[in-house]
Specification:
Layout: H1 3-11, H2 14-23, E1 34-35, E2 50-56, H3 74-82, E3 84-90, H4 96-105, H5 109-112, H6 121-124, H7 131-137, E4 141-146, E5 163-165, E6 176-180, E7 190-194, H8 202-215, E8 222-228, E9 235-238, H9 239-242, H10 264-267, H11 271-276, H12 280-310, E10 317-323, H13 342-345, E11 349-352, E12 361-368, H14 372-380, H15 394-398, E13 408-414, E14 417-423, E15 427-432, E16 439-443, H16 461-471
Parallel strand pairs: 2-8, 2-10, 3-12, 4-5, 4-8, 7-9
Antiparallel strand pairs: 1-12, 3-11, 6-7, 10-11, 13-14, 14-15, 15-16
Helix pairs in contact: 8-12
The site of calcium ion has 6 residues, from loops.
């Protein structure tokens, strides 16, 4: 554990931690762009750079490097200190399969046609060249450890990988104190303080295998996809990570009286009724087990970074770290994703390009996950398909104070009805079923937690008119 994390934990009293957790840590506190450290001094590698592409499942921005005072993420924080942290990065669809299918093809969800977890990407896009497939076609060794494309039968992209491995917990790792926080009403909603150690869990095995692959001597460049599963439910981690978060230090998010009620499709799931029955203790348990999973995953990520250093590959390897989408973790009484609120659409994104990024730099411009494909193609000199939806982030990696995108787009599906949301520097505007089932407008300058829906207020009609037009014109 790093000195910083230890200090932070030791420093926080129960009151300070509770207040900080109640503030949410990061959703509203967006730092301005900065270039904190020295200019990069590492020379660009003579040959093709390697790519370490780390995708985490359901991790929101409650991390040390994003300003959360309680969550212990020393390894992710270290990557932020060495590279560029994107403060306003948005997924295109806050559900696993649609989000991953989008950023791994560089296409928006309406183009991929993958709008749910049960649609195999290749059933919609048999001929598309996916991001890892592009690297494979260009002579890279490509490997997937864990979840990069959505998990399960027929969801992977066999064309993308030389090696693809999935992992299972050991018998010991399946044991431990456990509890379903909904009295079994919601089958996935349980935590377990697992017996055994990191490598009794799939994410620990992923880190071990990643280290082994990195240490193998290779005669060609690699694209290594490391897909950690935690903090996704069920909330399982070795017990020691639960011990980092005493229940009395955790405070569920506030619910201000008089805040805008949710529109009928905004949450769009019967689970809300089950969550509404949580006791205060269950809310704290949920937070503890989610954060335990985040810290467990962070420790595994640290092992991969250490292996990269040990193998002498850090200077020639691009590291991308992202989560497939955000997570409410109790905000608006919602303990899940799949909404068009900031908590669900925004997600962590960190990039380290040793010869390009300024250590410790922060980019507060808007970026989208569809930008990752053209960025990595650009950085590695590969010819990307012509029809990609995003734009390369290389200019922002060179100058993080540069202007981000005019808008970031996210969508969800509610049966046959769709919800679309556009985020600009100041506003979030959302329409349900083309506006027939309501619209939402939030002013992030004044209301970072999106409590007050301004869409129906006459004063804002001109703002709505502009955003309506923008919503219908997602460009590159
Ligand atoms: Ca996910």
């Amino acid at each position: 554990m790093s000195e910083r994390a230890t200090t932070r934990r030791g420093f926080l009293g129960a009151g300070a931690a509770a207040a900080a957790a109640a503030l949410g840590g990061c959703a509203g506190g967006i730092a301005r762009s900065s270039a904190a450290g020295a200019e990069p001094t590492v020379p660009k590698p003579a040959g093709p750079p390697n790519v370490l592409f780390v995708t985490v499942d359901d991790l929101n921005n409650d991390l040390g490097c994003y300003g959360h005072p309680l969550v212990q993420s020393p390894n992710i924080d270290r990557l932020a200190e060495q590279g560029t942290r994107f403060d306003r990065a948005y997924c295109q669809f806050p559900v696993c399969n649609p989000s991953r299918s989008s950023f791994l093809t560089g296409l928006r969800p309406d183009t991929t046609g993958v709008l749910g977890n049960r649609t195999p990407m290749r059933s919609k896009l048999p001929d598309v060249v996916t991001l890892p497939q592009l690297f494979r076609q260009n002579g890279y060794f490509t490997a997937r450890l864990g979840k990069i494309f959505h998990g399960g039968a027929n969801m992977d992209d066999p064309k993308a990988w030389d090696v693809a491995l999935d992992f299972k917990p050991t018998p010991l790792g399946r044991q431990g104190e456990r509890r379903n926080m909904t009295g079994d009403a919601v089958p996935w909603c349980w935590w377990m303080m697992a017996e055994g150690d990191d490598e009794d869990q799939p994410d620990g095995q992923i880190a071990r295998e990643a280290a082994r692959l990195l240490e193998e001597k290779r005669d060609r460049p690699f694209f290594l996809g490391v897909g950690f599963h935690k903090p996704h439910d069920p909330f399982i981690a070795p017990k020691k990570y639960f011990d980092l978060y005493p229940l009395d230090r955790l405070a569920p998010p506030p619910e201000p009286p008089g805040r805008a009620p949710d529109l009928p499709l905004a949450i769009g799931s019967g689970l809300k009724a089950d969550f509404d029955r949580f006791t205060d203790r269950e809310r704290r348990e949920f937070m503890r087990s989610y954060y335990a999973g985040a810290s467990f995953m962070d420790a595994q990520f640290g092992k991969v970074l250490a292996a990269l250093d040990r193998a002498g590959l850090a200077r020639s390897t691009i590291v991308v770290f992202l989560s497939d989408h955000g997570y409410h973790l109790g905000w608006r009484g919602w303990w899940n994703k799949n909404t068009l609120f900031e908590w669900s659409c925004r997600a962590p994104l960190l990039v380290r390009v040793p010869w390009l990024t300024t250590p410790g730099s922060v980019c507060s411009g808007l970026v989208e996950f569809v930008d990752l494909y053209p960025t990595l193609a650009d950085l590695c000199g590969l010819k990307a398909p012509a029809n990609l939806a995003g734009t390369s982030l290389v200019p922002l990696l060179k100058d993080p104070s540069g202007k981000g995108k005019q808008a970031a787009y996210t969508q969800v599906q509610r049966g046959q009805a769709a919800g679309y949301s556009v985020r600009t520097d100041r506003w979030r505007y959302t329409e349900w079923d083309g506006g027939k089932q309501g619209a939402e407008l939030y002013d992030h300058d004044a209301d970072p937690h999106e409590w007050r829906n301004l869409a129906g207020e006459g004063t804002y009609a001109p703002v709505v008119a502009d955003l309506k037009a923008l919503l219908r014109a997602p460009g590159a």
